Amino acid sequence: MVTKIKHTFLLPVKLNHATLYPFVEAVLKGLSKRPNSILFDFSRLEGLQVGGVTVICNLMELISRMGIKVSFYAAEWCRAAEFVERSGLLALSSKELTPPRTCRAFLPIKLVEYNRSHGYVHNELVPWLAANLQCDPRALATLRVCFEEVFNNIRDHSSIEVGCSAAHFDASTGKITICVSDFGVGIPGRVRIKYETTSDHAAIELACKEGFTTQSTPGNMGAGLHILIRNVVERNSGKIVITSGNGIYTCVPSGVSEQGSKRSGRNATATYPGTLIRAQLDIRDFVPDVVEHEEFIWE
């Protein structure tokens, strides 16, 4: 007789940076018992951020690869139901549901394979950003390169060569949040192959320095994180938060009269089994690239 084991995981009232890591840790601990099915219970959920959407997507991908059935309860009627639906998370629960269309507020969640990541950035992420920043897509060439480099790191840090990406524009605050996450070795694990560090956040700090590289993948020279911080934080007064392993690394602008970024690292409340990158831009502070218009001359 085969015993069927079903595990139910109750999402917290607010799934944000403070509650995300203990939730992930609890799910992974439950998976170690090899249940037949997993149920995510949304009944208490009142608040959801785009980072939580990408992480749940990663969890579902991992669970599916283990041959375990995953389902949702109350996702369509909880207090955060609109965010769950419009972010694309609800559609992941059933093949019968149609994924939502891209709109001004949401670039819905998507599983992005490494070998298709440049197409995703160029054809989906950049046009969506351009619409919200009200600029020519060509004026986002620098940001495009930044996120292409971030996806390059997926192959370096993840064991399954696939990441999850989603973005949200909050019109009430004028802020755009872009999240990319993956499960795998993580930044600290990759850094420690070549360098000794005292903590996971120290390893992330090292990975963010200019010129740093593990060179574990041809063509991935480790410039992605440094360039991302320089362009999102130092140039556009945005914010970067990187979580990997037991470390959290935050980069914010230094101040009005200073250039550069203020960086700080700390220990996470639980282990994150991969890398989660959250980039935030304020549309009021964004500085687009200068687009040189070619003059057409009749001969």
Outline:
The protein has eight helices and ten strands.
Any guess at the CATH architecture of the largest domain? 2-Layer Sandwich
H/E element order? EEHEEHEHEHHEEHHHEE
- Helical/strand content category: alpha/beta
Which sequence of strands runs across the widest sheet? 6-7-8-10-9
Radius of gyration: 20 Å
Strand elements, count: 10
Number of helices: 8
Which word captures the global form?
globular
- The helix content, as a percent range, equals 25-40%
Under CATH, the homologous superfamily of the largest domain reads: Histidine kinase-like ATPase, C-terminal domain
| Main sheet properties | 5 strands, antiparallel
What fraction of the residues are assigned to beta strands by DSSP?
Answer: 25-35%
Text of the CATH class of the largest domain: Alpha Beta
- Kindly identify the CATH topology of the largest domain: Heat Shock Protein 90
Distance between the termini: 85 Å
Number of domains: 2
